[in-house]
User: Which sequence fits this backbone?
């Protein structure tokens, strides 16, 4: 591995850590605004990646451009409106990632950097933010999309899914192991990039 490739890897790793941190911070901050201070009391209302990183999830983001972090603790019973606020908190992380990717894409339209390291890091950051954003919107436990789906369901069905979601994780594992996730994520990411850029 050359010095240049090591330097680029370091920049990409920093981009991954920032992407994870802003995603989890957004969840915690949204919950805090909506009446649940659990993330603040747990020390998770922070942009410090040490508070949020899941090693396996971070490596997946670095190499496969989708992954996960340690979930921010949320107590829905503290929300003013449990179902509505659970949806809003679940949306906060993915929307922040999609928003950041959008800003970076629009920034490239205004200024296209000539420095290869800087350009590669920006492009990598766009892919990672889009990957994390869209990946977490999939309606599969334990992803954010599953919490949105459960909050939209009748309460009896919602609680059944919450009680059994540890068994439903298998569907996400199967999707990852069979490469179905990549087949879904690829068109979403490229389609969004083409739409914006």
Assistant:
């Amino acid at each position: 591995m050359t010095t240049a490739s090591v330097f680029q890897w370091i920049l990409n790793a920093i981009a991954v850590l920032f992407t994870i941190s802003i995603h989890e911070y957004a969840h915690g901050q949204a919950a805090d605004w909506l009446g649940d201070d659990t993330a603040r009391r747990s020390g998770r209302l922070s942009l410090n990646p040490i508070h949020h990183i899941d090693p396996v999830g971070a490596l997946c983001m670095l190499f496969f451009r989708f992954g996960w972090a340690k979930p921010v603790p949320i107590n829905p019973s503290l929300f003013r409106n449990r179902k509505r606020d659970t949806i809003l908190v679940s949306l906060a992380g993915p929307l922040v990632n999609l928003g950041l990717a959008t800003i970076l894409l629009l920034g490239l339209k205004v200024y296209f950097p000539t420095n290869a390291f800087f350009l590669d890091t920006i492009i990598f950051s766009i892919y990672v933010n889009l990957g994390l954003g869209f990946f977490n919107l999939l309606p599969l436990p334990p992803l954010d999309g599953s919490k949105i789906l459960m909050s939209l369901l009748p309460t009896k069905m919602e609680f059944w899914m919450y009680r059994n979601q540890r068994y439903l994780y298998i569907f996400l594992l199967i999707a990852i192991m069979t490469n179905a996730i990549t087949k879904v994520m690829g068109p979403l990411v490229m389609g969004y990039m083409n739409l914006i850029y």
Q: What stands out?
A: Helices lie at 3-33, 38-41, 55-64, 82-110, 116-137, 144-152, 155-177, 180-196. The chain has a mean pLDDT of 91.
